[in-house]
UniProtKB/TrEMBL annotation, chain A:
Keywords: Transferase. Pfam families: Glycos_transf_1. One of its GO terms (molecular function) is glycosyltransferase activity. InterPro entries: Glyco_trans_1, Glycosyltransferase_grp1. Residues 213-361 form the Glycosyl transferase family domain. This is Glycosyltransferase. Gene3D superfamilies: Glycogen Phosphorylase B (3.40.50.2000).
TrEMBL record, chain B:
It comes from Flavobacterium piscinae. InterPro entries: Glyco_trans_1, Glycosyltransferase_grp1. It holds the Pfam family Glycos_transf_1. SUPFAM superfamilies: UDP-Glycosyltransferase/glycogen phosphorylase (SSF53756). This is Glycosyltransferase family 1 protein. The keyword Phosphoprotein does not apply. It comes from the Bacteria. GO terms for molecular function: glycosyltransferase activity. Residues 204-365 form the Glycosyl transferase family domain. Keywords: Transferase.
Amino acid sequence: MANKPKIGLVLANVPAYSETFFNSKIKGLQENGFDVILFSSSKSKVSHPTCKTIFAPNFDLRFSLIFEFIFIFINCLKNLKATYKLLKLNRKDGLSVKSSIKNIFINSHFLPYKLSWLHFGFGTMALQSENVAKAIGSKMAVSFRGFDLYIYPAKFPNCYQLLFSKNVIYHVLSDEMKNTLIEYGVSAESINKITPAINVDFFQPSIKYETKNSVFQFITIGRLHWKKGLEYTLEAFSILKKQNIPFHYTIIGEGIEREKLMFAVHQLNLHSNVTFVGKISHNDVKNILEKSDFYIQYSIQEGFCNAVLEAQAIGLLCIVSDADGLSENVLHEKTGWVVPKRNPPLLAERIVKTIALSEAEKIKIRENAMDRVKREFNLTKQMELFKAFYSF
Amino acid sequence: MRKFKIAIYCGEIPPPTFIDRLINGLAEQGSKLIIIGNLTQKVSYEFNNIKIVGYSGKINKFFILMYYSLLLSLFRRKEKTQLKNWMKLNNKNNTISKIRYYPILYDKPDVFHLQWIKGIEDWVWVRDFDIKLIVSLRGAHINYTPICEPKYAEIYKKYFPLVDGFHGVSNEIIQEATKYNAEISKSNTVYSGLDLNYLTFNQQKPTNEVFQILSVGRSHWIKGYTVALDAMRILKNNNVKFHYTIVGVGQNEELQFQRKQLDLINEVEFVEKLPFDKIISKIQQSDVVLLPSFKEGIANVILESMALGTPVISTDCGGINEVVNDNENGFIVPIRNPEVMAIALQKVANLDESTYVKIINNARNSIENNHTESKMIQDMMLLYKKSYGE
């Protein structure tokens, strides 16, 4: 089909097999009649199995740098119109001639493509590429997913000033993120909320959901990263321990904070109560979720969090923090509980209260959560919203 | 007093200030010293009984290796063979080990003093050559390395019984080391000593518009800065006007994010690592020095602040309560507790004149009694002598 709408998706890395979000999005778009081209700045240059993959020039290679430059030069010559337009747009933004040319080099891999949409998968990916879409005559979309909107600007204030002055359609995961963008001066009409979704057919309880264990089983899934608030979580569990509540807490995931967390477990005397499981497969995740009673996601920063959706779908009682999108993921006292972040005593209090609920009350919350996830956060609904997004 | 020949291995030359004070003190008292380590910057000492074996760059390393290899072949052939056999048996038969080992074997000190115990496995051989092996228990390497990397717990348990003397920077850290088979009878606490002529005591309260809080330390989770920032948020909720500076963290994503999330951009400042004299003047200008750590040996910044006359608040994070007595010469708060930390900060902000003077004078006295350079040298010599049964 010659006139399939073409979407250029810009990501840092080609999504690996485990990155279900991007893979299911690509698959869904292809099935719905879109042509997807992936633009990646990955250095390993391994293409995506189902879509055309274009790699950004790599200026780290000392020996083949000259070839890289020849390639860029030819690319620009072949696409003189787009190159000239990008130069003009860069100059209009106040960039010096040198910086404008440098910017063209960085973005040269985009120039040959005629796209309906150029969609940057993370806010940070759009930095230094703010003018590319216009130069190649396509519409520009940018997704914000969490760290790019909350953590990155803490380090680099005003980094999105230029981006926000452009004609862009934004995709965010939550109303909270939409409000943040509006605070930055982005117009509400250009922001679309499309929440993450999960495979609700896969994440279904295969055993009857009820509080199964006499030693309460708690679980968290996520990278061992400071933004997940695991240290605060452990501090809350140390309060539970002092109250002689029998519990076990399993943390699934790997990451750079392992040392810090292991020390916290030691110092808070939680050796016998906490297990670090490391990274495991999707199937194993489901098995462990099914054996647990409560899911905890006491993050400091969280775009939306698929793991919480999966836990709700399986029928776990979820206690989460109020970080960013989490209070939309879980509705307080309807589908779980939302606790103010960075406050271990409050989290501990909430856990104790939840344990004490009657079985009937627990079942009500579980069913609410399962229903809502099935209804609101399924892949079909998400794909409909993306289709609407691209027909904007 | 008996004179010793002491080799000090500290990984890198120049060594940190507190090891430098030990080196100079021992040299002044007449001991011969050999300082060995990776040379990152040229150093010179005023005493000529300090010999520096610093290696850096390929040519320099080659020269050191050739020189000592030749000397050993000429004058200590048998011992060289013995060491080489040990190296082969223990998978250490490589160039860098030779560069580190040969000068020690040739100079044959009475005492080999290892500053960082993580490397203990590399140095147990010195005992085969009648050199006493002394190790320092300073902080991180004993406080959390064996907990976070269990292989070190095994290494320590295996090699600690071979050590001739343990130097602990606090009684508490020696207790910690006993978990890994360190023998109390071989251990002495040698408190860190300061040059008190340099750190002049000032009884005058600094005149700051807002309450100035200072922390100093490297950018590491063990320092507990996340807890400190949570405490700062409580101060702000309580309408306390303050400014909090952390020296030594520079760019740290977690702390930068926390500062923004807690809306503390105007109150909290992160500063890159500073030289010692600049830190001293920062301490002098501050109303309080805060140590929010989860675990420490004894933090030198607390000792320095007490010497200078700046009140201190520290978490109860190890040996610190051997120096700071709550409400007498400073303030102690529990670890991981921002609420209590905030209360303590407010308390110091509102100290009446007489209590303020009493606290800082007591603090200075504590340092003068237990943390002078001469006491440190004397106590260290006692440990060396003890290893010889004297």
